[in-house]
Design brief:
- 44% of the residues lie in helices and 18% in strands.
- It is an alpha+beta fold.
- The strands form 5 sheets. A 6-stranded antiparallel β-sheet has the order 1-2-3-4-6-5.
- Helix 1 runs antiparallel to helix 2.
Length: 643
């Protein structure tokens, strides 16, 4: 094993070094790091056995402690469960002599058989640890490269999990032995020696079955354990027994209902048919055949095994899962859901997620609360799609839409890659008023009379009575700093609707229009009480204008939708339409400006001629808001899981 491991490690290092010649087009680690990792794990291969023996010494401490600790029989009496079980059918079968004896015989055989299976599974777990020990050099050779390091990590987790199983084997076997000793010594093992033999067998059988399934319980918690205890031969025997029992049951049912009224026979047949139809669904067994882990949807036992066998054949020959089957995995919690993957997951996901039905899917992985796939559109562009159940995950920070599955559950849909535009489609509008129905369907709750025009991918221009403004799709643009509101379209996509810009009246130039401008300004800004002498509206299209006062000072007004709040002192005024403006006061000042004639400076006594000009000096000028930045199409931040 060591020589094989060194050879494999050498091949892995050589291959990864060869890939490094590809430069930036190949994903590989630095050659020096690769050689260093390879040297380290080559040394570990040589000491694989001593390292494993040290690990066994650590695990031997709790193992030996459980072997030597005294276990009193009272520790495993199943006390407290007696009252619960006695309230059910157990009371009836325990007082009926014939049924009670048959049931005791069945339970005794089942108890002995399950104890034998637990012993067999315990030995299997010992053998697994031995195999892991002898093959440990092969695991170390996988740690020489980042590309194969996950195999080494999985092996380490499996070793720890198997050693934990060995410790639990002792606990289960000694616990069962103590329980048997209590039962044989006192004639009952429930509370005080006067317990019911049927109830004790019932609890002991459940204890054995729990011990056999403990590796499955550890696997559901995320530990890597080897699944032992399965037997194809036993499943075949159970199938034959179930089929023969089904024939005998049908024959006995015929003899029981023979001679009965036709109404009773019809009722029994209808009841049997209804129960059969509710259990035996073809899609359920196809689902059970392809789900890795998770609870089954169809019947168990021998008939369930046969049905799942045929379901597996159907899955390999193009069968498609229904939305109900996928929901039984996707809508559950991850620790109990199981997973669906492979070709059948690619074929079937569209039945659960209607928005993906027109896409070619690949690499699909369906688990509880989380679905991932790669969607390829008709143009050949692909996108990595991640779906998160809203009941299990918080709202993502990045670009996402809210989609509804076939079972009515809601999911956050996120995507990255060049094909993401097909999933976050921007509707096409021309700005015509005739598109009112399409606009209201795409944006429920939009103000009546609003028209939309598509500017670019992810950007719309909205025009209403309040003016024109831009809407930005959150899938293509980051959230802007400028004042805006967030709104949802019919597909659950968030849009950033910018605040409309303020509208400044058309002030007249020249001193002759001073009275007109004063009246127009007073009507436009009724809350501004200071008297003005003139208005300069030459920069109104840039979102700001200036007024002058009689003492030479001035005030500059900036549109709150286009400019950031200024530093220093400022006031906020509201115009007659309800729009707000930043008002910055300026002090009177005098500046010397050069004199120009015909576009050329005028010289006097050998220097440029200048004159004094009255002006206003402002201490602070606000910065203008910038358009929102486009998002990185290849970046996708998964949401946080809810507590």
């Amino acid at each position: 094993m060591q020589y094989t491991a060194w050879a494999l490690l050498f091949l892995i290092i050589v291959w990864q070094l060869f890939k490094a010649f590809g430069g930036p087009i190949s994903e590989t680690e630095h050659p020096l790091q690769l050689v260093a990792r390879g040297s380290l794990f080559a040394l570990l291969i040589g000491f694989a056995k001593p390292i494993f023996e040290i690990t066994l010494e650590i695990a031997r401490a709790p193992y030996t402690a459980l072997m030597e600790v005294p276990m009193e029989a009272e520790d495993f009496t199943f006390a407290g469960i007696e009252e619960v079980l006695l309230n059910g059918i157990t009371t009836i079968v325990s007082v009926s002599s014939v049924v009670g004896l048959i049931l005791l015989l069945v339970l005794e055989i089942s108890l002995g058989w399950n104890y034998f299976k637990l012993l067999l599974e315990t030995v299997e777990r010992y053998i697994v640890v031995g195999v892991l020990c002898y093959t440990s050099p092969l695991a170390y050779c996988m740690g020489g490269s980042k590309a194969t390091a996950q195999v080494f990590k999985s092996w380490c987790r499996m070793v720890g999990s198997q050693l934990l199983l060995l410790v639990m084997n002792v606990w289960f076997l000694r616990g069962f032995s103590s329980s048997v000793g209590q039962f044989l010594g006192d004639g009952g093992a429930l509370s005080s020696g006067e317990g019911n033999i049927f109830l004790w067998m019932f609890c002991a059988l459940a204890f054995l079955k729990t011990a056999q399934k403990f590796d499955s319980y550890l696997a559901s918690m995320g530990l890597n354990v080897a699944q032992t205890g399965s037997s194809m031969g036993m499943e075949i025997l159970m199938t034959a027994r179930a089929l023969s029992g089904l024939g005998g049951s049908a024959k006995s049912a015929g003899s029981v209902f023979h001679g009965g009224s036709s109404a009773a026979g019809s009722s029994a047949a209808a009841s049997f048919s209804a129960g059969f139809a509710s259990k035996f669904k073809g899609s359920s067994y196809v689902r059970d055949a392809v789900v890795n882990g998770g609870a089954r949807m169809g019947a168990g036992g021998g008939l369930g095994f046969v049905a799942r066998t045929f379901g597996g054949i159907a899955a390999r020959n193009g069968a498609v899962l229904t939305g109900e089957s996928i929901s039984s995995v996707a809508s559950r919690m991850p620790n109990a859901s199981g997973s669906i993957a492979g070709d059948i997951a690619d074929r079937s996901l569209g039945n659960y997620m209607p928005q993906l039905s027109g896409q070619k899917l690949s690499g699909t992985q369906i688990t509880g609360g989380h679905i991932s796939t790669v969607a390829t559109g008709p143009d050949g562009s692909s996108a990595n799609v991640e779906l998160y159940n809203t009941s299990q995950f918080e709202k993502p920070q990045g670009a996402h839409s809210l989609v509804t599955a076939s079972d009515g559950s809601t999911w956050y849909q996120m995507a990255s890659g060049e094909g993401r535009g097909a999933l976050f489609h921007t509707p096409e509008f021309t700005g015509s008023a005739s598109e009112a129905d399409q606009i209201s369907a795409a944006f429920p709750g939009i103000s009546e009379g609003t028209t939309l025009r598509t500017v670019s991918e992810g950007a719309l221009e909205a025009t209403s009575d309040a003016g024109s403004t831009m809407w930005y799709n959150s899938a293509f643009f980051e959230e802007p700093d400028a004042p805006h509101t967030s709104m949802m379209d019919s597909s659950g996509m968030e849009w950033y609707a910018m605040m409309p810009n303020g509208t400044v009246p058309q002030f007249e130039p020249g001193e002759s229009a001073a009275a007109y401008n004063q009246a127009a300004f007073q009507e436009f800004m009724p809350g501004y009480e200071q008297q003005i002498t003139s208005v300069d509206g030459s920069q109104r299209t840039e979102g700001h204008f200036e007024v002058r006062h009689g003492d030479g000072t001035g005030t500059m007004f900036y549109d709150i939708a286009q400019y950031m709040p200024p530093r220093g002192d400022y006031q906020v005024f509201e115009d007659n339409s309800g729009h707000q403006w930043f008002a910055i006061h300026g002090e009177a000042s005098v500046e010397r400006k050069p004199v120009y004639e015909n576009g050329k400076p005028v010289y006097e006594n050998g220097s440029v001629k200048s004159v004094n000009v009255e002006t206003v000096r402002y201490r602070n000028i606000p910065s203008r808001y910038q358009p929102p930045n486009p998002v990185n199409p290849n970046e996708m931040k998964p949401p946080k899981k809810k507590n």
